[in-house]
Structure formats: C-alpha cells, structure tokens
Amino acid sequence: MLFAVSMTFIDQTIVSIAAPSIIGELGLSSSGMQWVVNAYLLSLAAFFALGGRLADVLGHRRVMLAGTVVFVVSSAICGAVPSGGGAQAWLVIFRAVQGFGAALMFPAALAVVVEVFPVERRGRALALFFGVSGGLTALGPILGGWLTSWTWRAIFWVNVPVAVIAIVLTLMARIRNHPRPERIDWTGAALAAAGMGLSVLGLQQASSWGWDSPLTWLCIVGGLLILALLVVVELRTEHPLITMRIFADRAFSVDNAVLFFAMMSFVPVFFFASVYAQVALDYSPNQAGLYLLMFFAGFGPASQIGGRILDRRGARPAMIQGTLVGAIGFALWAAHITDLSLGDQWVYIVISGAGIGLLLTPASTDAVNRAIGRSYGEVTGITQTLRNYSASVSLAVLGTILLHTLTDRVEETLTQHGVPAGEAHSSAVRISQSITGHGGGSGTPAGVDSTVLQQIRMDFAEANQPVLYGMAAALVVAFLCARLHPGTRVTAADEAPAGPAAGKAADAADGGGATGGPVP
Known about the structure:
This protein has two domains: 2-184 and 241-412 and 456-488, MFS general substrate transporter like domains (Growth Hormone, Chain: A), CATH 1.20.1250; 185-240. By secondary structure, it is mainly alpha-helical. The longest helix is centred in the C-terminal third of the chain and has 41 residues, at 376-416. The chain is built from 19 helices and no strands. Helix content is 78%, strand content 0%. The chain is globular and about 75 Å long.
C-alpha cells in the first residue's frame, strides 16, 4: 500500500518543479501550466468521497488495484503528450484522470491497512503509513529536479515501475477482497463532486481572478450551497454516499476538526517553504527539497510516538500535545524566518514537523476506527476530503496574504532605490507574481540589480512571517478542538462487523483467489 500511495504524494510537488521545462518545450502559458497542476488536485478533492464509498462496496483490494491502474496509465499518457496546439488540453484532461485514479486508490489503500491490523495495533501501523508516505512529499522537488535534468517527461514515467511493484506486492500479499452488496448513491456522488470541485476551483483561482471577482465567489458560494444540499439529500437516502449520523459521534467530529485546522499548516508548508528556500536562501530546487527534509526530521519520529500514544492512551493526549508543540514550533519558525540561514532555523522547523507528526496519525486513525459497520473506505474518503479542502482554503488565503505583503514590501524597497512611485508599484506587482506564481514556476526575478535583489530576498522572508504565524494560529484552533475530545477509545469489542451479507459476498468473490487471511 505504501508503494501505491507514494505516487500520489510525490505527484503533489514533483510537477511544479518541472513546470519551466514543460512550458518551454510545449509552449504553454503560465496560466495554462497552472491548470495542469490544479487539475490533479481539483479531481482529487472532487472524487475522494466516491472513491471511499466504492472501496467499501466493491472491496478495498479491488478498488485499490483499479485506482493504481487508472493512475499509472494516465500518468504514462501525460508523459507522452505530443507537442502542438492540443498539448495543454491533453495534459489537463489526463492530469484530471490521474487525480481520479488517486481518489480511488488512496482511501482503498488506507482501508486495506486498517482492515488487516487489529485496532490495538493500528496506531503503530498507520504511523508508519503516514510517516513514510508523508515524508515522500519532500522527495518530489529532489526527484523532480533530478529527472527533469534528463527529460521532464520522466516525472510522469517514474510512476510506472512504482505502480508495477505496488500491484505485484498486492497480489503476493493475497489480501482478501470484501465487497458489500449495497447501492452506490450516484446522486450524492454527483453533488459531492460538483460541490467540492466548484468551491475548490474558486479557491484555486482566487489569486488569478481576484478576491473581488464575482466569478470567484460564485464558485465558492455555489459549491458550498451544493454541499449543503448534499447533506439534506444524504439524510434522506437509504444507502448514502456519506453516512451523516457518524458526525453525531463527538470524538469523530473532533478528530476531523483537528485534521481540518492542522492541515492548514501541514499541506501548504511544502509550497511556502520550498519557494522561501529558493528565493530567500537562493537554494536550487534540490537544495530546497533538503530544506523540507528538516521538517520531516521531526515529523517521522514524532509520528511513530503519536501512534504508540494512540495505542496505549487514545487519541486525545497525542492530539493535544501535537497541536501545542506544532503551534509553538511554527511561531518560533516565523520569528526566525528573517535569519537567512538554515543553521538558525532548523531547530524550529524540526519542532514544527514534530507537532504535526504527533497529531496526524492519532487523529486520522481514531476517526477511521469509529467507522460505522467497518465502512473504512467511506470514513477515509470523508477525512481525506476535509484535509484536501482545508489545504485549498489555506493555500488560497495564505497565498493572498503572502502576495499582498510581498508586493507592499518590494514597492517600498524599489521606492527607496529611486524608482518612481507609479513604476515602483507596477514593478512590485510583477516581481511578486513572478516569485509566488503557481504553476509557472517560482524563483528570484531576473534582470534586477544585485543590491536590490538582496533586499527583495529579505522582503520575501519578512512576507513569510504572517504566513507562518497564520499556520501557528490554525494549530491553536486545532488545540482548542482537541481539548473537546471525550477521550474515549475504540477497542476490538467496539468494532461492529460489516454484516453477514458482506461476509458471504466476500467469500464468494474470493472463490479460488485470495485464500490468505489478514496479515496478523
């Protein structure tokens, strides 16, 4: 399962590194490249809920394999894009298909891990799962930079051998498939995809369209209204896509609230820290990846500790400790972000990563453990949907704060160096957009005097301070949510079986195939 999901994590960051090469060879515009990056994330957010439900109905192993095949085939097709006028449409379409494959694969893969480990050992198992898969996100920039030096197409083709290994290992593991003969709520699936897709689209495009654009708010508000309609429909549906009564479980709701606010810090930190390292510290993309590894130096070990705390004491202590440590770490990191040296910052980066590592596994695992009737795929789909939506909100809001703060500071710098006021403002906007531009690549602006450039690097470091303080504030809210957790634990006796029908269907589906039982 780790081999399978590693592709989805790496793909979140690897494409942005190759963006300049893709733009140069295929002749795409920066906005067109942004759509190539966003299409994957948009599709991922839109179809997570459906992917989780399909995993429960058709069987976790079957949907995981199907999602892997869809993901890797579309990835290979992306790498084979022909030059010409249709290149952008080709990439956008198959990146969206790739996101759909990931939305099938990830909930099913996580559900497999949950299903084969007993509840008292899931903390340690999922700590390894989230620790390794999360750490792979930092490899995206490093791997992307190395592969792009050969050909940018390799960033898509590298998924093929990884997928082959994942499929072979899955078949060798002889994991049982446990389908459940229930209806698929296609109405709910359509509403979920439309609501999530439309609102995330508005958040993604807010920086391009502007927060004062009616189109931005039409997408965001329209998407939220559709999601509100989804809740009404699901409450009246016999076999809903999302079983709304699970939110009546206070612990489940708190787990998801903690994840929602914590992910405002965890997911965006890859983008902001990577660009900061390249602009303020003048690192190469590969060196920026190493800068991110400082975060995972704390995240990896702490995730193992968080998993063990979950197994022994429940999720509440780990979530409280993790949110508190993370908030302190991000606040200290923000205070020292203007020290343009990794040596002055690495301790606070490690503390920040440790805080996220402590809380991620307990919150995610405790939420999945509370699935009704072992609907692990459905619950995983819910938690991943909330995590992705949270990341979209955070990237949009914090990205806007970064852009406006940087523009103001660069304008002040240019004015101090004798640039006329009107020209200083337009130049500051252009420079700021060049540095923080999504999809079209990021980096220090060309054609700027070295003295001014050094000050712009400091301006960018200072502009990142409110971003990191915002991440710390989000973790403070997560801390307050964590304190509301009742502290109850799920035991093996609490887990209700999926039902006799599911068991019979599973036996029939396995036939002479997967005869091995769950991994002890």
